[in-house]
Specification:
single chain, about 325 residues, alpha+beta, 4-stranded antiparallel β-sheet, 10 helices, about 35% helix, rod-shaped, disordered C terminus
């Protein structure tokens, strides 16, 4: 038997251009290496029935390329392209190791003979070091565990518990990330400060958004010109009451209101410097109430939690 010259000379092994791992055109990316070679070989036969001798080359390609696809498949290139610093949209929200596992599974789905496990392990160990999402540990702890402005998920945690929970969450999200050092520093500095700053946990103080201190109100007003407070007292610009200043604090309410530790609402004084009797339900206008702490008529706003010195929060 001899092979007739082909009308369309085959210049490479059947499947080399169409089935080489990492270089498949779109039409066969979902085929295994073997399926691709068989399909190409069949098409060659259909195009040139006398090309029977190409079966040998097909077998050679199957043996040399398909069997070796586990090693020759450009795993590293796939991980770099999909999980590196310049990611496509579909992997942008995955951590680096999640992305690598996803791509590794996708490679196996496309080609069950491919094995990128070792390349995946190497990439997670070496390549992921420079590719995790940008992480500022200090900023993460400040945003999530700040004593006066926490998100809902950790409002009932102490500062130390919040730092520990967040550090664990960061590790879970990206095992290559390490915020242990920043966690220890935040724990020793900001959490310690959180226990010293803030108002007393006895509902005797309110945090003034203007003075940025915890104030204990007296029943002496200072709303009129010439009114003076006693030694050691100051006039609160919001309530127009003489008060004694305590620890520093950050108010959770707007600048025109204060967080009442009794009502747990942001209260806006309607007639600053004028006292009322909390026991008299008619002391204030309709829609107002007499605050039991400042003894002033106020309008209740949104819910709030006082910035207390002692945690956990209320």
């Amino acid at each position: 038997m001899f092979c007739l010259p082909l009308v369309y000379p085959i210049t490479s092994l059947p499947g080399q251009a169409e089935c080489a791992a990492g270089h498949q055109p779109s039409w066969n990316k979902n085929l295994t290496c073997e399926e691709c070679v068989k399909k190409v070989d069949k098409e060659i036969h259909a195009r040139e029935p006398d090309a029977a001798c190409e079966d040998k080359e097909a077998k050679a390609f199957l043996k040399s390329n398909c069997e070796a696809s586990a090693n020759t498949f450009n795993c590293k290139h796939s991980f770099e392209a999909e999980c590196g610093t310049q990611r496509p949209p579909w992997t942008a929200n995955l951590t680096c190791d999640e992305c690598v596992r996803t791509i590794d599974s996708d490679i196996r789905r496309r080609d069950p003979t491919a094995n990128c496990d070792e390349a995946a392990r190497v990439f997670v160990k070496d390549g992921c070091k420079d590719t995790p999402r940008s992480l500022d540990c200090k900023k993460e702890f400040e945003m999530e565990c700040n004593n006066t402005a926490r998100p809902d998920w950790n409002k009932n945690l102490t500062c130390e518990e919040c730092v520990k929970a967040l550090d664990e969450a960061i590790h879970k999200r990206d095992p290559t990330a390490s915020c242990d050092k920043e966690a220890r520093v935040f724990d020793k500095t900001e959490c310690k400060k959180a226990h010293s700053d803030g108002c007393k946990n006895d509902a005797s103080e309110y945090c003034c958004p203007d003075a940025k201190h915890c104030l204990t109100p007296t029943e002496k007003t200072c709303g009129e010109a010439g009114d003076k407070c006693a030694a050691g007292e100051v006039c609160c610009p919001l309530t127009k009451l003489c008060v004694t200043a305590g620890a520093a604090c950050v108010s959770p309410c707007p600048a025109t209101s204060y967080c009442c530790p009794h009502a747990l609402k942001c209260l806006t004084p309607t007639n600053p410097g004028t006292l009322c009797d909390p026991s008299d339900k008619t002391a204030c206008k309709t829609g107002e109430l007499c605050c039991p702490l400042t003894k002033e008529c106020v309008i209740a706003g949104s819910d709030c939690k006082p910035p207390l010195a002692q945690l956990p929060w209320l």
